[in-house]
Write a structure and sequence with these properties.
Largest sheet: 7 strands, parallel
Order of helices and strands: EEHEHEHEEHHEHEEEEHHEHEHHE
CATH architecture: 3-Layer(aba) Sandwich
């Protein structure tokens, strides 16, 4: 692995076959001992459009809490959970950004597959462009994707984190909820047994064949226009790059949406387990519980909201 000045700002740690980048001097157990366990109170909304509107209201609230021209930094959520929000933001951009909200946004992605050309149709960036529209990205203050076309993915991830630090971190982190075997769950791409700790800002994780196939199938089902060449390049991806628990806990606001239990019924059991699983007070035991079921990390965020459809709770 080549040396890079930006990488020196983070501590590289290998765990469970993954590489995690952490803040120097942060002791995970100390972080866990300070964080209170908050009850998740799901807010049931009637449909995806209502969830998207609630997410937009959250973004507006963050903006109102700042001075008029002060930037707002956000992490985009991929997949089904934020598509209604993205349609709303896209229409606002097409209408000329009448509220002046979009021009204030520093926009970041939260995970990616690599190596992969940035123009590949299976890139999350291309999917965001399809849903949000090119006008949205023309109007935002900045857009910082995780680079997936670099020779050194760890250096690219460190550079991305440095750019995130430069805007003062995330004001709002839009999160989903992913089911895993055994009724466990993942956040971003923090997977069960990945060894992520409360100090880890980001990770570079070897990709499994099942995740790769799921990713390809999801993009095809979502309406992305893909080519055989793009698909073959995607099948050569070796890693997932993801923000880590420290990025989630460090965001000033975290908003989760779970809207697709009808097509992903396992989310009913995994979401319930996130809400109901005991979380020990002992830091070492708590770390083990979080590693076994990373969806529970949201319970440690003091400013968290969970938006769901009724079928998630059925």
């Amino acid at each position: 692995m080549s040396e890079s000045t930006n990488r020196s700002e983070f501590v590289r740690r290998a765990a469970a076959g993954n590489v995690w980048l952490a803040r120097p001097g942060v002791v995970p157990e100390a972080v866990l001992s300070r964080q209170s366990d908050h009850e998740i109170v799901p807010e049931v909304l009637p449909d995806e459009d209502a969830v998207g509107a609630a997410m937009l209201d959250e973004l507006r609230a963050v903006a109102r809490a700042k001075d008029n021209d002060e930037p707002v930094s956000m992490a985009l959520l991929g997949g089904r959970g934020a598509q209604a929000l993205h349609r709303l933001l896209g229409r606002m951009a097409e209408d000329g950004d009448p509220e002046g909200l979009i021009r204030r946004l520093h926009v970041f992605t939260q995970d990616a597959l690599g190596p992969l050309p940035m123009a590949n149709a299976f890139s999350f960036v291309r999917d965001f462009e399809r849903l949000l529209g090119s006008t949205f990205f023309d109007r935002v203050r900045s857009f910082t994707p995780i680079r997936t076309d670099a020779d050194d993915l760890e250096a690219a991830m460190a550079d991305y984190l440095q750019r995130l630090d430069a805007v003062g971190g995330l004001d709002i982190f839009f999160l989903g909820h992913g089911p895993e075997p055994g009724d466990a769950s993942h956040l971003a791409y923090i997977k069960p047994g990945s060894g992520a700790t409360a100090a880890d800002v980001a990770g570079v994780i070897p990709i499994s064949s099942s995740i790769r196939e799921h990713h390809i199938a999801k993009f095809k089902a979502g309406g992305s226009q893909v080519s055989d060449a793009d698909e073959q390049a995607c099948r050569r991806a070796t890693h997932i790059l993801t923000l880590g628990p420290a990025a989630i806990l460090g965001a000033r606001r975290a908003v989760q949406s779970v809207v697709d239990a009808a097509t992903a019924p396992a989310k009913r059991a995994t979401y319930r387990r996130v809400r109901e699983s005991p979380l020990p007070d002992d830091p070492a035991a708590r770390a083990r519980a979080l590693d076994a079921n990373p969806g529970i990390w949201v319970r440690l965020h003091p400013n968290f909201r969970s938006l769901v459809l009724a079928d998630v709770l059925s």
